[in-house]
Amino acid sequence: TWATQFPMAEPAASTLHSLTLWAAAELDRETSALLTKPRVVAAFERCLLSLFLNVLEDRCAIERKAREDISEAHVRRIEAWIEANLTEPIGIEEIAGQAGVSSRSVQTAFRRVRGCTPMQYVQQRRLELARQVLQAPTPDTTVTRVALDCGLFHFGRFAAAYRALFGEKPSETLARSRRGATAWRLLTDRKTKRFVSGRVG
Questions:
Q1: Contacts of range 42-48, beta carbons closer than 8 Å, 24 or more positions apart
Q2: pLDDT of 112-134, one tens digit each?
Q3: What is the CA radius of gyration of the chain?
Q4: Rounded to whole angstroms, how far apart are CA atoms 51 and 39?
């Protein structure tokens, strides 16, 4: 029954199956070289053993792939870890270590589930975080400081990636947010003055 335990669609298993069927028929012939020539028998045994080991290797590879296959729920757990460590140095090795699988498995899973690599996902989330900070600036907010705080250390690449994703420069987002904050503050001040004047009058 061993043959039913192997992936017969694989070349090594298919060849081994065919060869064993041929050998069974050949051994029924009294004049077969498998019965009369020791060197042929030895060569044939080595061939069978080699194919058998290849089949075992194929089986192990399939089982290993099944163990390392990452589900969408597992990807979401990885994403939660990324969110918790977004401003820290993150590499594919750290992500794979958290998942308990190989870097290649993480790469494959993210491409399947999210349509991008893990590091592309990290980059996008950092850019989105930077935009949130730039849209709610404090008096001390600068583009450089926001980039550093969000784990984006290459300023030229940060500006280019930010513009490609959001259609404007980081400095433009910051300037627009400050103008909006100033306008809102002035409007609020006017409303407050009218309210106070009304009460005094």
A1: 47/19, 48/16, 48/19, 48/20, 48/23
A2: 889 999 999 999 999 999 999 99
A3: 33
A4: 18
